[in-house]
Amino acid sequence: MNTLKIGNRQVGDDQPCFIIAEIGINHNGNIDVAKRLISVALAAGCDAVKFQKRTVDVVYTAEELAKPRENPFGPTNGDLKHGLEFEQEEYEEIDTFCKSIKMCWFASPWDEGSVDFLEQFRVPVHKIASASLTDDNLLRHVRRTGKPIILSTGMSTYAEIDHAVEVLGKNNLILMHATSTYPANYDELNLRAIPTMAMRYGVPIGYSGHETGIPTSVCAAALGACCVERHITLDRAGWGSDQAASLEPNGISRLVRDIRLWEQAKGDGIKRVYEREFPIIKKLRRVGAAV
Q: Which residues contact 36 (CB under 8 A, 6 or more apart)?
């Protein structure tokens, strides 16, 4: 069976869908907002929450950080990037809080230093963002941790994904089908890529959704996605680049509910007559079945 272990959960073939609430930077640099979002994910029944970790001065050039960009933290892009970035104190608080409520957490490291930073917290898995899929050095650094890896494949060709899989190897790997537009249009989702990728790569395939609605993410699970990831927010109209592509508390709760209903309803594919149908047969059928 094609599965891997994340925390105390088996993820993959014939396992319940692993549902990830992507907090990312929707906390807007506020640890109290981050905790509220973790609590939202717990109440909804999500299996894990995910953040993003960057060493800002490594990921971005000095020129990029110096660009003018009015934001709540100052007048430059660098003010914004530093203002949104959680550091040691905040992640210690996240780690303590998640442990206290038994919520699995991990993050997408965007550079090698961020991988090492996250390793101190013994995260159960590393998520590689679509933007980092072509960063061979980062991929190799993440693989050296020995942890399971979730790799998003937005804005990537098959050739690029093939190369990334060659670098990482297929052991303990989940590929996430994704479209990197925020929010994504429905005609850009291409959900049938999920079974196609499963056939091509022979590893569990998940789905990272950036659309505004819920049903298509449920459809992803129905098409075989072993895990589904959606951004969450307290307010889709709030300030921030990812808020509009996120689900509010009611939305993430509905998503988890509907995926779990699909799991109850899908059955084993064997047609049968259920015990509760026998009285209906007796009541409604005028002619019995031929023997």
A: 234
Q: Is residue 217 a part of any domain in this protein?
A: yes
Total structural domains within the chain: 1
5: its two tokens: 């272990």
**Side-chain half-sphere CA neighbours of 234 within 13 A:** 15
Task: Note whether residue 289 is domain-resident.
Answer: no
Q: Is the pLDDT of residue 257 over 70?
A: yes
| φ and ψ of 113, to 5 deg | -60, -35
Give the range of the structural domain holding residue 76, as residue numbers without chain letter: 3-284
The pTM of the full predicted model, rounded to 2 decimals, is: 0.96
Residue 77 tokens read as 């892009």
Q: Residue 28: give its domain's CATH number.
A: 3.20.20.70
Tokens found for residue 35: 């905790």
**What mean pLDDT is predicted for residues 91-97?**
98
* Residue pLDDT, tens place only, 172-204: 999 999 999 999 999 999 999 999 999 999 999
Torsion of CA 104, 21, 176, 212, to 10 degrees: 180
Task: Report if residue 48 sits inside a domain.
Answer: yes
The C-alpha angle with vertex 76 and arms to 70 and 78, in degrees rounded to 5, equals 130
- Indicate whether 290 belongs to any domain: no
For residue 128, count CB atoms less than 10 angstroms from its CB and return exposed for 0-12, middle for 13-18, buried for 19 or more.
Answer: buried
